[in-house]
Amino acid sequence: MEERDVEVTGIITAVIIGLIVGALGRLVVPGKQNIPIWLTILIGIVAAIIGTFIAAAIGVDDTRGIDWIELILQVALAAGGVALVAGMRGRRP
Known about the structure:
The protein has helices spanning about 5-30, 35-60, 70-90. By secondary structure, the protein is mostly helical. It has one domain (about 20-90). The longest helix is centred in the N-terminal third of the chain and has 26 residues, at about 5-30.
């Protein structure tokens, strides 16, 4: 597989994971979040990346089966990001 194919696959994977993590984060936050879906995906991608780095730093990034702690970190970060951005967008004049 060429290096370019790996980069494209990595980007597509990041978007899919970001969509899932962002959606889960949005579901965790109570109330209505008045933010567009593209921003939810972006928050999810950033949360997935940061959550992976944190999981690696504490040594729980590579476990047998599903990496539940890493997933919980990612969703919690996405929920925090969604709440923060929704709160900021809600206060606009």
